[in-house]
Design goal:
By secondary structure, this protein is mainly beta. Helices cover 11% and strands 41% of the residues. The chain has a 6-stranded antiparallel β-sheet with strand order 4-1-13-6-10-9, covered by helices on one side.
Length: 179
């Protein structure tokens, strides 16, 4: 399997399972194969997801409680079970995605490291009444940094952060080491 040039995402784009498989899953396989063939720790990773629904309060940044390990071969999952702790200083690709059960409000997500928000995005795309968005960022991280996925909304009341897979889309949080 060859490396695929990273995709440029556009606002309002419907992200399908096929797109994720090509630009996320297949890239992980490539990185894993590179690591297995002596890639100097290139491609080690941790992937978590939220399987159960989680209620998110109005106008409050809320940490998503990642309750399922998709892949964690090197035990990066944080001691509280909801974050990812990087084992070494280096360059990492961080990706996250989410799906909401309401589209008539502002919804945002971000990655927080040790209490500091480092990247943030507004969820603008919708599909059949659901708001969803996948995002990614390349970050230089320090050994021991713990990353968390947080979300925010202003619906005027609680919203449900959809944990189950809907329309071929999954809530996820993944960190992959580049170098």
């Amino acid at each position: 399997m060859a490396w695929t040039t990273p995709r440029s995402w556009t606002p309002g784009e419907t992200v399908t399972a096929s797109i994720y498989n090509t630009h996320i899953r297949d890239e992980f396989v490539f990185l894993k194969n590179a690591a297995d063939s002596g890639g100097q720790n290139f491609g080690t990773h941790c992937a978590l997801k939220r399987h159960a629904d989680q209620t998110i309060s109005d106008i409050t940044w809320t940490q998503i409680e990642m309750d399922t390990v998709l892949s964690d071969p090197d035990s990066w999952r944080s001691s509280d079970g909801f974050g990812i702790e990087v084992p070494a200083t280096g360059v990492y690709l961080v990706t996250w995605g989410q799906m909401w059960n309401n589209t008539a409000v502002s919804r945002n997500s971000r990655i927080r490291i040790e209490g500091v928000a480092v990247t943030q995005g507004n969820i603008t795309s919708t599909y059949e009444g659901w708001g969803r968005r996948g995002m990614g960022q390349v970050l230089v991280l320090t050994a021991g940094d713990v990353l968390y996925h947080e979300v925010y909304h202003n619906a005027g009341g609680d919203l449900v952060f959809e944990g189950t897979v809907s329309y071929g889309y999954s809530n996820h949080f993944t960190v992959v080491r580049y170098k």
